[in-house]
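README: folding subset

This subset contains proteins for which both the sequence and a predicted structure token string are available. Records are stored as plain text. Below is the entry for Isocitrate dehydrogenase [NADP] (335 residues), shown exactly as it appears on disk.
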Amino acid sequence: MTQTITVIRGDGIGPEIMDATLHVLDAMQLGLQYEFADAGLVALEKSGELLPAATMDSIRKNRVALKSPLTTPVGGGFSSINVELRKRFDLYANVRPATSFPNTKSRFPSGVDLITVRENTEGAYSAEGQAVSEDGETATSITRTTRRGSERIVRYAFELARKTGRKKVTVVHKANILKSTSGLFLKTAREVAAEYPEINCEEMIVDNCCMQLVMRPEQFDVIVTTNLFGDIISDLCAGLIGGLGLTPGANIGTDAAIFEAVHGTAPDIAGQGKANPCALLLGAAQMLDHLGMADKATRLRQAIVATLEAKDSLTGDLGGSSDTMSFARAIASRV
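--- output ---
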């Protein structure tokens, strides 16, 4: 069986880490076919659009995309290509695992194994009602939370916990102060949690959650929260395990899913072979899970860990002196 996925090579270091990732996937002989599409600066130069219709059509048709980092130029158009993709395809669940890896520059080289599930389409990032007063002294914005949005993201988190054998979901909120928006999220989460009696549901105020993550991250399993809080918490979790270079992300909707490295384009090192491809490789592992290839995803993750343990052909950020593709070849040799 073959599966066609849309591949967006991205900007900056994007093409380098994508080539490395596809090299490893090809070595696994998964039957994947690639349909390449443009977005970001490359697309802007070719077609005058950051998100060409052909790219949107490709994602819509294939329903699965693997994406390198993209640059959104400052000064006009939509605020973020990533946000725009989430809106257009209703990719309501942002799933960010954070796992300790060996031989990394991390505060927690072991003991961290958690997933942040972030609502991706509502809340503070919807840009609804944004305005600045005529005198420039006051800015306003509407934060909208719906029962439907809250219900489906919390249900996704509990279903993920059930599917992966995780035992606890922590609902993170600020309902003590934001009694309407965060209050609705928490009330809805309690209703959903009641349907999963085998999974422990914990409630935690967001500021306490951040403190607890820094002090004892091992207490967390699955975290589910709203858009803004999830954005902050997921980056905090990346800091626990060594940074964004080891952190993938999945954006899941009913009709499409996009898997990515969550770091930026790093234009200062683009084209130099210095980029660490692990984040995109781990995003590819999430994609394989989504495609029903869980055993292949496990093989890929194990090969990455084995390469880190062996300190074999690592990039500079991981303490080695090899280039991006050499690192990928070392991983490919183990899958």
